[in-house]
């Protein structure tokens, strides 16, 4: 009898501890744990050798990476280009797609020696899937409609590594980003030719 009474006195004290022990695994299972921190995507190599349109065209809207996979943002850059302008491959690669998506012409290229692919739209393609193209080679022309730049015509240029969007401008090396219009420079004359031109060596002494 006394043993039963002592057990009855202990049970109220033990119940809260038992409840906590039984419920804590469930509570831990229901509590969301933070996942691993997302890794920083490695930068794209500067393999570009040409602008998609023109020579350093105005960037109407830059790359604005979304905070989440499906979040708002701008997954590429918009380059000003009048309709009919030639669209060029920024680097050598293979055509993955050349056709229409949602009424817009799209060309997608897999860049040679990389895990990158770049896209251009709206473009009327002059290439077909599987074609190999070189850097600077024309892949189509800017279509007069389908641009999302409003009244101004533009080419939307995108870059992806797998499912990750990257800044397409990172493909261009600094010398191409800052370069102005191309100009042909004269070939530097040879030292003896300079001497003849300035009269320091008689022209009759020039042999060969």
Structural commentary:
Residues 14-39, 180-198 and 200-208 have low confidence and may be disordered. A hairpin with a 5-residue loop joins strand 5 (104-111) and strand 6. The longest helix has 29 residues, at 2-30. The strands form 2 sheets. Strands 1, 2, 4, 5, 6, 8, 10 and 11 form an 8-stranded antiparallel β-sheet that branches. Strands 3-9-7 form a 3-stranded antiparallel β-sheet, with no helix packed on it. The relative contact order is 0.17. The protein is of the alpha+beta class and 208 residues long. The chain is globular and about 35 Å long. The chain is 19% helix and 25% strand.
Structure in a nutshell:
This protein is of the alpha+beta class and about 210 residues long. The chain has helices spanning about 1-30, 175, 190-195, and strands at about 60, 75-80, 85-90, 95-100, 105-110, 115-120, 125, 130-135, 140, 155-160, 165.
List the helices and strands and how they pair.
Elements: H1 2-30, E1 59-61, E2 77-80, E3 86-88, E4 93-101, E5 104-111, E6 117-121, E7 123-125, E8 132-133, E9 138-142, E10 154-161, E11 164-166, H2 174-177, H3 191-197
Antiparallel strand pairs: 1-2, 2-10, 3-9, 4-5, 4-8, 5-6, 6-10, 7-9, 10-11
């Amino acid at each position: 009898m006394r043993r039963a009474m002592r057990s009855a006195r202990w049970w109220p004290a033990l119940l809260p501890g038992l409840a906590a022990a039984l419920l804590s695994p469930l509570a831990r299972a229901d509590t969301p744990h933070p996942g691993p921190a997302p890794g920083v995507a490695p930068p794209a190599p500067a393999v570009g050798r040409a602008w998609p349109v023109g020579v350093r065209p105005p960037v109407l809207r830059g790359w604005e990476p979304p905070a989440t996979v499906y979040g708002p943002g701008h997954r590429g850059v918009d380059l000003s280009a009048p309709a009919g302008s030639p669209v060029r491959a920024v680097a050598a690669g293979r055509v993955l797609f050349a056709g229409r998506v949602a009424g817009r012409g799209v060309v997608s290229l897999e860049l040679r020696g990389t895990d990158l692919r770049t896209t251009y739209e709206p473009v009327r393609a002059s290439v077909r899937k599987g074609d190999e193209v070189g850097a600077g080679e024309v892949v189509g022309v800017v279509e007069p409609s389908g641009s999302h730049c409003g009244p101004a015509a533009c080419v939307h240029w995108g870059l992806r590594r797998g499912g990750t969007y990257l800044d397409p401008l990172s493909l261009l090396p600094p010398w191409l980003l800052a370069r102005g219009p191309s100009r042909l420079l004269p070939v530097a004359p040879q030292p003896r030719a300079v001497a003849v031109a300035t009269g320091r060596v008689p022209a009759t002494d020039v042999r060969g």
